[in-house]
Amino acid sequence: MEVVMRADAKVRVESGTESSPRGPGCSLRHFACEQNLLSRPDGSASFLQGVAEKSQERLIRNTCEAVVLGALHPRTSITVVLQVVSDAGSLLACCLNAACMALVDAGVPMRALFCGVTCALDSDGNLLLDPTAKQEKKARAVLTFALDSVEQKLLMSTTKGLYSDAELQQCLAAAQAASQHIFRFYRESLQRRYSKS
Amino acid sequence: MKETPLSNCERRFLLRAIEEKKRLDGRQTYDYRNIRISFGTDYGCCIVELGKTRVLGQVSCELVSPKLNRATEGILFFNLELSQMAAPAFEPGRQSDLLVKLNRLLERCLRNSKCIDTESLCVIAGEKVWQIRVDLHLLNHDGNIIDAASIAAIVALCHFRRPDVSVQGEEVTLYTPEERDPVPLSIHHMPICVSFAFFQKGTYLLVDPSEREERVMDGLLVIAMNKHREICTIQSSGGIMLLKDQVSALTSVPVRTGHFSEVFKDYLVTKRH
Q: Which residues does UniProt call coiled coil (chain B) (predicted)?
């Protein structure tokens, strides 16, 4: 098994993928991803986006539990370890994206991929997708959604602040549109990685 | 999760190879693995890769009251954590021996060598000093954690910039990065740990052991040196008896330590801030 791991590691993509220029109407920040960067864990991923801890762990865990096909691996424990390198806003969404990529890299069977998107509503009611840390602090409400890749259904949502029902629907629609870009990025990233091996 | 035990045939294979002066990755006895240093977006954030061993270092600072018996000196705080992703055996609560040993060695290497000028961290004597906190996280364990961690710590400290302060009488004004450029720390020299692994009761020696080699080694000698060939710390574990001239011969081996400092300077110059 050790020999196989070494062969994998030699072939691993040295630099990860970065997102390509996006069309109008999408205000997500730039993101980049690198997979299989560590040799000891079964799978690993590093996700860069832009740029309250136990509860966040629980949210990520619930999202992963909803998509991972646990029944195929009874008596197995899957540990997801996330290390924050730097926080420039939208931290929970970035963690969700990294967790999904790491699960894919480890080869864990899932029923869908998932992604995280954060929306912020400022005091004027404007919608900001993928806010920076400063924008999050000044915002009236910050909403984070986890969406699945098959039908863009909502897997998890966590919100902070005041907002109306109409605003919630608006944020959700914007998040669903943005998730398309993220899933396209996943696909490109994985294609790049596997086309080199 | 318990570490998978090393099989006897793998152990025999490694030891036979070392006897024949061969290493699994093709290195020579005194060869180091490739070192790559990359920086994060904040000042004081860096990731060091020593081969496949990966350490993340982050430096932060805070204004606090000084210690009572050292009223004019700033406070340095080091913390190395073995993340669970580094190896399946590193469970929280299960790694105490190794963790304590590594932390102690790091502290001796960086704090006792007085590489950081703590007097310059004083703002108001007896009342306000800077507390510099260095957090290191091991992300991937492929041997020789201490070398990678010491490089990450000193590079992060060199990269770090603390906010500028001005003192008028008893009033301290702290400037944001937008108002005034942050100030680098005052660093006298850059000590780095170099590890030597011994096999077959001290007969064979290897520099920068990988994870497999660490499993079969008998003893470990860690020497912390700087570019000027000054020794900051020596630690020998495993009960290997070495003669004085053997140790002196080893201290002259890290000519590469001079090489390291050059590597750092390159990185810091190219990292134009």
A: none
Which of A83, A91, A95, A105 is most worth mutating to test chain B (most B CB atoms within 10 A of its CB)?
A83
Cα angle B149, B155, B156 (rounded to 5 degrees) comes to 85
User: Which residues lie below 8 Å from residue B216, measured CB to CB, with a gap of 6+?
Assistant: B6, B11, B14, B15, B199
Residue B213: which of B9, B14, B54, B3 has the closest Cα? B14
The string of pLDDT tens digits covering residues A111-134 is 999 999 999 999 888 899 999 999
* Residues B205, B208, B209, B210, CA torsion sign: negative
**Which among A196, A182, A6 has a CA at the least distance from the CA of A101?**
A182
Model confidence, pTM: 0.81
**Predicted local confidence at residue A183, as pLDDT:** 94
With left for phi above 0 and alpha for psi between -120 and 50, is residue B144 left, alpha or beta?
Answer: left
C-alpha A154/C-alpha A149 separation (Å) is: 10
Q: What are residue B269's phi and psi, to 5 degrees?
A: -70, -40
The predicted-structure confidence for A55-75, as pLDDT tens digits, reads as follows 888 889 999 998 999 899 888
Which tokens in the block code for residue B8?
């006897």
At residue B138, the 3 state secondary structure works out as strand
**By the 8 A CB rule, do A11 and A197 touch?**
yes
- The contact set of A with B (CB < 8 A) is 9, 37-41, 44, 51, 79, 81, 83, 85-86, 88
B54: distance to nearest CA of chain A, Å?
Answer: 8
Helices (H), B160-272: 211-216, 244-252, 255-270
DSSP-derived secondary structure for A35-53: ES--SSSS--EEEEE---H
Distance of alpha carbon B271 from alpha carbon B273, whole angstroms:
6
Residue A6, by phi and psi: left (phi above 0), alpha (psi -120 to 50) or beta? Answer: alpha
ipTM over 0.90: no
B85:A83 CB<8 A: yes
Rounded Cα gap, residues B194 and B252, in angstroms: 11
Nearest to B140 among A40, A51, A85 (CB): A40
Chains A, B: CB contacts under 8 A, how many? 42
Task: Find residue B76's DSSP bridge partners.
Answer: B132
